[in-house]
Design brief:
The protein is an all-alpha fold and about 170 residues long. The protein has eight helices and no strands. The longest helix is centred in the C-terminal third of the chain and has 18 residues. The two termini are about 15 Å apart.
Amino acid sequence: MRTFTNCALAAVALCWLGSVAAAPKGGTPPGQLAKQADEAMDRGDYDAAIDLYTQAISNNPKAWHSYFHRGAALMHKLEHGQGGQGKGKGQGQGKGQGKENENQLDSRSLDPVLSDYDKAVELAGNEQGSAEVLYERGKVHSLRGEKDKAKADYDEAVKRDPSLAKRGAYDLQ
C-alpha cells in the first residue's frame, strides 16, 4: 500500500487553516493546533497528532479537514505498527516494507480510519481537497476487501481531480 503523501497532507492543511473556526475562549488557536499536529505527524508521534486533531474536531465539528487528518494519523499509526491490531516492525520502515504491515491490518483496525474519512467526505461535499479524501477512503475500502466501494471512491476522486490518476489505482481486483 502506498503511504499517505506529505504533499497531500500539506495541500489539505492549507485548506484546513482557512476553514477552521476560532478556538474557544482559553483554547489553542486553530492555526496553532494544525501546526502542532503537523509537527507531531512529521516526527512520527501519531498519538499526539490524533489528540490534536481530536481537539480541533471538538473546537469545530464541521471542519472536515480535521477528520481527514485524524484519519490519516490513525492510518500512519497502523502502518507503522503502533495500532491495536496492526503490529509491524515499528517506525522507520522504508519502501518495500509496507507490504508486511499491509497484511497485518484487519478490517476492525481500519474502522476508526474509515469512520473519520466517511465524516470528512460527508462534510466536504465538493470542496477543493475532497477528491483526496475520496482517494484515501478508497484505499481503506481496498484494504478491507471492499473492491466495489474502493473503485467507486477512486473513480469519483479522479473525476474531481484528474491528477490523482497519476498515482494509479490501488488494488481494485
